[in-house]
Amino acid sequence: MADTAEPGSSSLRHAGLMQVLHALALGRCSSVALTRDCLAAIERDHALNAWTWVDAEGALAAAAASDARRAAGKPLGRLDGVPVAIKDNIDVAGMPTSLGLPAREVALAPRDAAVVDRLRGAGAVLLGKTNLDEAALGTLGGNPHFGDVGNPALPGRAAGGSSAGSAAAVAAGHAIVALGTDTMGSVRIPAAFCGLVGLKPTFGHLPVAGVAPALRRADVVGVIARGVEDASLVLGQLVGLDAHGGGRQACLPFAAPDWSAGQVRAGVVGDLAALGTDASVRAAFAAAMARCAPVFGDVQPLALDLATLEVARTRRAALLLMEAELLAAHAETLVRGSPRLRAMLDYAKRKSAVDYAHADRLLDLHVARVCALFERFDVLLLPTVPVAPPPLGSEEPPNLADFTALASLAGCPALSLPLGDGVGLQLVGAPRSDLRLLELGEVLQALVDCPPE
Predict the structure, then answer these.
(1) What is the per-residue pLDDT across 177-220, written as a single tens digit (0 to 9) for each?
(2) CB burial class (10 A; 0-12, 13-18, 19+) of residue 327?
């Protein structure tokens, strides 16, 4: 595809959502020009392996329709004309849902997932499907079928997973925002590695109809964007009734913001070194906490002992349940997987019903332990990842998802803010405190983005 972008559209590819919406509303850039420029960048950056399927014709048609609506003064919604990327375990009508497995014999999705339907209803331009770890079972974005996903922010490093392609697409300016899924950190890990914001809402806030299941008690659709405000705006377009679930309420009421600067009770993870955290991550986290000190004021953060939560043990129990559910839901599809994937699933076959019952009980205990923390704290603060992004093609660090699993397996909302060099600051809130967490996240992002004096 020839690069025939209008003046200004190229720079908008790397802009935040609010800036893009402003330019579209004022007519400074058309959706067609922006979409064409995104598609040209996707073609140029094919070596990133960020995409499994691109619908250039459909995206340009949707962009032209958006421009016509804006010219008539009748935009569909806040996202009208905005190019969006969708992880390839979420159904988009007329596109295959590969789950990161070989695409041959994959049927085209007959209809949109509920969240995609809402994006279309808001006028978003759907560019295509993004790459992921096989069956969304991984943390680095490694894929033997579509290629390992590269990291545009840190070339030669892993992009994180499993929503690797979605993060790489936003970081490279292929899309303005992206949807991913987050079961134990799959949105927040790649967001941190690629220098972006990653939002995992409270479990149950968003419908998962049309999303390939992994671990039903933790599966959540999340948002990857350049800023907290951008992620918040996209989340607002996704909540509501689940049209494909018999009218069931798909989201719980958001808790209103109620914190005051200088009075935030924060629980901060204590001995990071003992938890296997890299020195570079510890230094970045300490620097971020120092910059955020005004938010805590006289209410000094208290140490949070992760050892008592047994997060690593709980994550391993959840992984066993996840492998079993993947087998139950996708047995015929998974036979096309790599030897690595089949070995992981064979492990689940060898476990007993008692093993699964023990794992399920451990997850119940984790929910109770984490929710009890919010009787003392308004927010939990910890690094998003314990290690910096490893080289592309590396083996997965065994503890990479420990910090993100804490929130996922308790159903809590969590937000990852970029600290640079592939490191993230993670905020975890009580279930249903999404709005409070997002507002606090905007304040903290402004503080950590300020250069030191």
Answers:
(1) 999 999 999 999 999 999 999 999 999 999 999 999 999 999 99
(2) middle
Residue 421 within any structural domain of the chain: yes
- Is residue 87 part of the annotated active site? The answer reads yes
Tell me whether residue 162 is one of the annotated catalytic residues.
Answer: yes
Q: Which of 122-131, 184-193, 337-346 has the lowest mean pLDDT?
A: 337-346
* Range(s) of the domain holding residue 295: 1-305+380-453
Would 342 be classed as within a structural domain?
no
How many domains is the chain built from? 1
104 exposed, middle or buried (CB, 10 Å; 0-12, 13-18, 19+)? exposed
- For residue 314, the model assigns a pLDDT of 95
Task: Please indicate, yes or no, if residue 314 is contained in any of the structural domains.
Answer: no
- Whether 129 is catalytic is no
| Domain annotation covers residue 316 | no
The label of the residue with tokens 């030669």 reads: 156
Computed from CA positions of residues 312, 317, 320, 324, in that sequence, does the dihedral angle turn out positive or negative?
Answer: negative
| pTM for the model | 0.93
Q: Catalytic one among 10, 66, 87, 232?
A: 87
What token pair was written down for 309? 């939560």
For residue 159, give the CATH number of its domain. 3.90.1300.10
The more confidently predicted of residues 228 and 7 is 228
Of 309, 412, 323, give the one whose Cα is nearest residue 362: 309
